[in-house]
Write a structure and sequence with these properties.
This protein is α/β, with parallel strands linked by helices and about 300 residues long. The chain has two domains: about 160 residues, HUPs (Rossmann fold, 3-Layer(aba) Sandwich), CATH 3.40.50.620; about 120 residues, Beta Barrel (Elongation Factor Tu (Ef-tu), domain 3). Helices cover about 30% and strands about 30% of the residues. It is built from ten helices and 14 strands. It has a six-stranded parallel sheet with strand order 1-4-3-2-5-6, with helices on both faces. It has a six-stranded antiparallel beta barrel with strand order 9-10-13-12-11-14. Strand 11 and strand 12 form a beta hairpin. The chain is elongated and about 75 Å long. The chain starts with a strand and ends with a helix. About 35% of the residues are buried.
């Protein structure tokens, strides 16, 4: 897969099929669009093109980022595009200036100019351009001028609910990880660096890897304990993850993400990249009377996360 970054240096195609969107979450609905794009492109023997944005437009336009965070990093999106056989991805660096580009200008000066699309695949609620003017009605109105076809993909429905990034985000905020994973069709994950902590976990028999996420604007699941899968140094492990302030050990602790990797090996992974995949929510964060009570609970948590 070829990847282009920059607003005006995209490769020019004689013809292609394309889709455009933020694809935050890359959930089942997004995968349905990408799969349809790939199918159409293969049938037409044309390159498949995804046009997306980084950073996410909300991170530029939303004045209160405390209420909003991304689900999927740019790197995760690219991995999924590659897995689904996309030929070319154009990552447009989003800014307030880009936000002012009208739908007609964006269509003419970017999509048509560079890609000459024969078919444009869009989701049922698709919008682009200034004030979200570029919807399916707009694209249908303009298709006579540019001789492309519109292929509108219906929403993906699970348990009579339309899959959406907003719904997944709400699930994760409410500790409903298994529900979020169902809509994502994979485990929600965080990637980051293992940083040195205070060593308290080691002292009580539950050594942990403290994690600093690479993307500070990715949504962190709500406080509590989770069963997770862990990948570090190309090795797969089962683990349990605590997100919170460690109230039993600290009166006013920092909010941390720490993972206890369930293994008999003596791991030394400070400074390493770690990928944490959330499987299930176990319990909320709780302040115990003492470390003895905490350790008893940690043994229960570890047993819960072990395979049957």
């Amino acid at each position: 897969m070829d990847i282009c970054t920059g607003l005006t240096n995209a490769k020019k195609f004689k013809k292609s099929n394309l889709t455009i969107g933020c694809f935050d979450g890359m959930h089942k609905g997004h995968i349905k669009i990408i799969t349809e794009l790939k199918r159409v492109s293969d049938n037409n023997h044309m390159p498949s093109v995804v046009v997306t944005f980084d950073p996410h437009p909300q991170s530029i336009l939303n004045n209160n980022l405390n209420d909003w965070a991304i689900l999927t990093t740019n790197e995760q999106k690219l991995e999924l595009f590659y897995e689904h056989g996309i030929d070319y991805t154009w990552i447009i660096p989003f800014s307030k200036d880009v936000a002012k580009i009208t739908a007609e200008q964006f269509l003419n000066e970017y999509l048509i100019k560079y890609f000459k699309p024969m078919e444009i695949v869009i989701g049922y609620d698709h919008h682009f351009g200034y004030k979200r003017e570029g919807d399916s009605e707009f694209l249908n109105f303009m298709k006579g001028k540019y001789s492309y076809k519109i292929r509108k993909v219906d929403p993906f429905i699970v348990n009579n609910i339309i899959v959406s990034s907003t719904l997944i985000r709400n699930y994760i905020k409410r500790s409903k990880i298994s529900s979020a994973n169902l809509l994502l069709d994979r485990k929600y994950s965080l990637r980051g660096e293992v940083v040195e902590g205070k060593g308290i976990g080691q002292d009580i028999g539950f050594p942990t890897a403290n994690i600093r996420p690479y993307n500070h604007n990715q949504l962190i699941p709500s406080r509590g304990v989770y069963c997770v899968d862990v990948i570090v140094n190309n090795n797969n492990y089962i683990g349990m993850c605590n997100i919170g302030t460690q109230p039993t050990l600290h009166n006013q602790g920092e909010n941390v993400i720490e993972v206890h990797i369930i293994t008999d090996s003596n791991l030394s992974i400070y400074g390493e990249e770690i990928l944490v995949k959330f499987k299930d929510f176990i319990r909320k964060e709780k302040k115990y009377k003492n470390t003895t009570e905490l350790v008893k609970q940690l043994h229960i948590d570890r047993y819960t996360c072990m395979p049957n």
